[in-house]
Amino acid sequence: MSASGSTPASDLISAFVRAPLMRACLPFMAGLSVAFATKPSIGMLWGAVACASVIFLWLVWRRTVYERRWQRGLAFSVLLVALGALWGVLRDPRRPPSHALLSDARVDGLLVRIDEVTGSSERTVKAFAVVEAVRMDSAVISASGTVVLTLFDRARAPLLLAGERLWVERAPVPLDRIADPGGFDPAAWAATHGAAHEVFAGAGQWCRIDAPGPLASAVQAMRTRTLGWIEASGMDRTERGLVKALLLGIRDELDAEQKVAFARSGTIHVLAVSGMHVGLVYAVFMAMLGWWGRKPRTRLLRAAFILLVLWGYAGLTGWSPSVLRATVMFSFFVVAEVAERQAEPLNSLFGAALLLLLWDPLMLVQLSFQLSFLAVLGIILFYKPIQRLWYPPGRVLHYFWSLAAVSIAAQLITTPLSLYLFKAFPVWFLPANLVIVGLVSICVYAGGLMVLLHAVPFVGPALTWVNVQLVHLLGACSSFFAELPFAYPAVRVDGFQMVLLYLLLAFAGALFFWRWRPARAGALATVLLLLVTWGLAARQRNAQRAVVVYAERDRLSLAVVVGRRMQVIADTVDTYLERKVDLHARAVGADEVRWARTGEEAMQLSLPGIPAVQLVPPGRFTVPLDSTAVAVLHGDGRYDLEGLKAVRRVVLAPDMPHRRRNFLRRWCVENGVACHDVDRAGAAILGP
What we know:
With 688 residues, the chain is of the alpha/beta class. Among the domains are: 8-90, no CATH class; 97-212, CATH 2.40.50; 495-542; 545-686, no CATH class. 52% of the residues lie in helices and 15% in strands. The protein contains 22 helices and 18 strands. Strands 1, 2, 3, 4, 5, 6, 7 and 8 form an eight-stranded mixed sheet that branches. It has a five-stranded mixed sheet with strand order 12-11-10-9-18, covered by helices on one side. Strands 13-14-15-16-17 form a five-stranded mixed sheet. It is globular. The model has no long low-confidence stretch (mean pLDDT 83).
């Protein structure tokens, strides 16, 4: 028990009582989840909202006794669930009838408005764009929907601004490519933003219609000017890439090895500008302006200035969702400081979440929202109970123990979701975060000073040198932890097991921190169920059989999976393919990976329970193809078309020239042969 007489359990109950926005946000989230999972009709949802409203208003109007006050709360929660489901359907960009126009083959032009720029490189820039109109049969008609827009130029990637309107002389293409197992799924990623189509446009195939509004233009000008200052600092590409990622969240110049090192060390979150960065900005300006005093007018001026800085920083980072969430939450703290009230973190977190979900309901299914929300929730729930486990002597130990408690609290509640998504666990996350998060805090402050003072004689070069040394040290630390033994072991968790892990975490927290005795039985039952599901999953992995032709550009590469063994066959091997194979092996639970090279002769792969797979190079077949086989055609040359008529299915490898692939695809349609073009449709997964 603390000095004030409170206990962890009483603190938690008090936090729940002081968080009315949490009690409103949770049922609203549940309603959004129902809408996304079941896709109900609008009419049914309007009826549900009307019924729930009548019941709630009747209970409010009717007199009730104190013991039955829960009825009103339950009715209000049901109403919020219905409102959440209705709001999710109304704001879903894929539901309006005009969205179907994007799938019409007659569409050959689009009028779009840039919603969010998601990435850029030297030659390409990618963004989510809202469709306002389409051109069909020489007529421009209104339309709706969201597309993934990619613009490319051989000279230099064009600069896109959020809010700009563009005319694109290209047709939308459905995002239906099959992702490589364990790899990045662009269709699933786009679906979380309401997009089901993509558009590619090169130089001369698009033009600007009008510029964004004055506020967006001013923010973008500030962002562009900051990038120019970073470019003028004289740092090389690697150092500049880290500074841009830490200050602005721009990762276009980060090397793949850098990203892998941060991921394996469990510190990849520092490369995405998020709540930690916003918290640093908030803390430094609160400390700098604390001397202004406590008078009402002074507090109001201080709050206005800090809000201006916070929202200016959000614009500087491109209005990224993670920064917006943190900015909204810290804005609650600023407003509470003006009103001389203590802000309840749990209430502020759910208040920020509710406002953002009202603005964009699809944030609920976006990974960045889920991980950042869970991390902050873990800190709110578990930080103080973990910190109370040890009272270290001295300020230095107390500081490092506080950092460790924050890292453990955030990792606890994000681990089940991370295991489900990434199929691995960063073992050394705790010491890595203690070192790297501290360095990142220094880098953010030093980088900000460098951007502001880089042109000042003597001061600018000195700050640039300091930043170079800091990013070198940061990169060395991430590589050190990433290369330690057992740094990133594979841990496979499916969706049901992820739910069980969260249930186990809730029971364990209730038992260990808040002394709720019934949680012991719940935790034991959850552990037993987890062991059963892991045993069934292991049995299923031991029996798996599959041949996967990867969606690699301009080369043939495929994997043969038999139980926990994987054999990779490829004509060339590089680090990119090795990384893809590692992700695939983690996803399917392969403990052993062997490599082999393709030859110029035909090769047959026979696995129990699946059709035979034959790798077929150009030329005549020396042995007739099996009528039940799948023929994987690869290489450049003429094929024995008469022999191909006998096979069950044809797979066109991506190392085949474009014209020959188009010819073979048409030939398969004319002759009734099933065909899968890996270059167009994505990975070919051949299994039972």
